[in-house]
Amino acid sequence: MHVRGVHAESSIPVLRQLVRDNPLGMLITGVSSDEHAFLQASHIPFLLDVDDESGETELGRLRGHLARQNPQSKAVVDALKRPDKPASGSNVLEQEVPVIFTANVQHYVTPRFYVETKPTTAKVVPTWNYAAVQVYGRATVYFDGPETSAFLSKQIDDLSHHTETSIMNYTGVGDRPGPWKVEQAPERYIELMKRNV
């Protein structure tokens, strides 16, 4: 992403907060698969884990999940299972993946808004103002094995808690209802849903 210096945000805590406030990110992958498209993108909600919240430099780790039936999931698993893959058996993608988060507020800016420069020079053009964060890193993929169930249980519990309390403001305080919790759904149903992720 091209960002002019005057518009770039360099504060890591501010960038982390934009991700937390706007958790629906676009995961983009470019992986070789014999049956699926090389480039794929999916909008999925993410959680951001940071070990030291007071730190000014820690970037953190993103957690998200995809449906098994998503073609992007299938392509990623295919890439990890390829026998010609250098680190065969590893659950870490070789290529870095970007995830893009965009804030809800964005708008077209007309040249008519430039009241100081337009009348004197006419050197103005329209633009679009928005706030976005692009995150790059190596993806660890859990798709089979005992660690997959543990990861997924933590993921759906944490994601439900975050979205219920931070996005919906269901805190149980005052007249606000309490947050929905995964254990409120039938256990057998949740296990069935987890097998599809």
Major sheet strand order: 2-1-5-6
CATH architecture of the largest domain: Roll
What is the 3D shape? Answer: globular
Please name the CATH topology of the largest domain: Pnp Oxidase, Chain A
Strand-residue proportion: 25-35%
What is the helical fraction, as a range of percent?
Answer: 25-40%
Query: Any idea what the radius of gyration is?
Result: 21 Å
Q: How would you state the average pLDDT, rounded?
A: 91
Low-confidence stretches are none
* Main sheet makeup: 4 strands, antiparallel
- Number of E strands: 6
Secondary-structure-based class equals: alpha+beta
Spatial separation of the terminal alpha carbons: 30 Å
Can you tell me the number of structural domains? 2
Protein name: Transcriptional regulator
Brief characterization of the structure:
This protein is α+β, with helices and mostly antiparallel strands.
What does this structure look like?
- By secondary structure, the protein is an alpha+beta fold.
- It has helices at residues 12-21, 71-81, 117-121, 146-167, 187-195, and strands at residues 24-30, 39-45, 47-49, 61-63, 92-109, 127-140.
- The mean pLDDT is 91.
- The strands form two sheets. It has a four-stranded antiparallel beta sheet. A two-stranded antiparallel sheet has the order 3-4.
- It folds into two domains: 5-143, Pnp Oxidase, Chain A; 145-197, no CATH class.
- It contains five helices and six strands; from the N terminus they run αββββαβαβαα.
- The longest helix is centred in the C-terminal third of the chain and has 22 residues, at 146-167.
- The chain starts with 11 loop residues before the first helix and ends with a helix.
- It comes from Chaetomidium leptoderma.
- This is Transcriptional regulator.
